Amino acid sequence: MTKPRVFASFAIALLLGCTKSEPPPTSPAPLSADPQLQPASSPPAAPSQAPNTPPAGPAPASSAPAAAPSQARETPAASSADQSSRAPDVVYVPTPQSVVDKMLELAQVKKTDVVYDLGCGDGRIVVTAAKKYGTKAYGYDIDPKRVQEALENVKKNKVENLVTIEQKDIFTLDLSPANVVTLYLLPDLNVKLIPQLEKLKPGSRIVSHDFDMKGVKPVKHLAFKTAGLDRAHDIYLWHVPLQKETKTGLDALKP
Ligand SMILES: C[S@@+](CC[C@H](N)C(=O)[O-])C[C@H]1O[C@@H](n2cnc3c(N)ncnc32)[C@H](O)[C@@H]1O
Asked: What's the 92 CA to ligand 1 centre distance in angstroms?
């Protein structure tokens, strides 16, 4: 399919910071608004994450829980410092609110679910899950600025009893308590998460904005376009256990 590839390339360019965009907001966007894509406010990209990094999902940056706590909280200072000692793997680009709504609808989120957003940005996905479905939700981000914005968003929307925000590197998380995982990362980061995602309980759902996950077959893929969106947004849905793609042709000969 040509169109989704074009859209994915555009999204990747944004995430890599190749496209001019608006400065980050001083406060989180209202849930009802369809926010504009924004560049990461993270430190400049490390050489390995420079804009010519091959496309694969949200662009590389310049640069997890069982019992729900009663209040949105931030990781204590000492461990925060450990967790944020490296740059984000992908820049911050928020998912438009209408796409957030569609992602949660596709995942068939219900009150008894536990939603994790890996790289939560301003927390819009977890806040929406809590507000709309009454679901416990956890947002993780490595960037302290995003964690601060997400905490403010949680407070503004009065969902402290359902939403937890923590500053963590998503690649260190135990995902087993979750049964819905949302992603807006990059294709290679999605693939890197497979070993963690495979540990989700059977019946869990994974939804990704813009990017697929090479090696595992989605149960659904749609190019979502609605009023207010600048382009069609790809949304991928997987069910756990993940269905591995079977290799064909020359690929079948590779180990
Ligand atoms: C493209 S934004 C998506 C934000 C949000 N999920 C949304 O859809 O609106 C990706 C986010 O992942 C965060 N991030 C990048 N690498 C990370 C890592 N290793 N651990 C945790 N967060 C990370 C970035 O700081 C950024 O906020």
From this structure: 6
Strand-pair category, 205-209 with 180-183: parallel
- In the chain, % of residues over pLDDT 90: 62
Residue list, ligand 1 pocket, CB within 6 Å: 15, 58, 61, 88-90, 92-95, 117, 119-121, 124-125, 140-143, 146, 169-171, 184, 209
Residue 14 in any domain: the answer is no
DSSP assignment string, 155-205: HHTT-TTTEEEEE--GGG---TT-SEEEE-S-HHHHHHTHHHHTTSPTT-E
For residue 34, tell me if it sits in a domain: no
Give the domain range for residue 93: 71-245
Summarize pLDDT for 86-140 with one digit per residue, the tens. Answer: 999 999 999 999 999 999 999 999 999 999 999 999 999 999 999 999 999 999 9
* Residue to mutate (ligand 1; options 97, 142, 192, 224; most atoms within 8 A of CB): 142
Structure tokens at 85: 């000692």
Q: Which of 141, 169, 183, 186 to mutate to test the pocket of ligand 1 (most atoms within 8 A of CB)?
A: 141
Residue 39 included in any domain:
no
Pairing state of beta strands 233-239 and 114-118? unpaired
Q: Provide the domain count of the chain.
A: 1
Q: Could you give the angle at the alpha carbon of 49 between the alpha carbons of 16 and 92, nearest 5°? A: 45
| Protein residue closest via CA to atom 15 of ligand 1 | 88
Q: What pTM was computed for the model?
A: 0.77
CATH number at residue 179: 3.40.50.150
Nearest CA-CA partner of 242 in 185, 204, 211, 187: 204
Q: Is residue 3 part of a domain?
A: no
CA pair distance 87, 34, nearest whole angstrom: 27
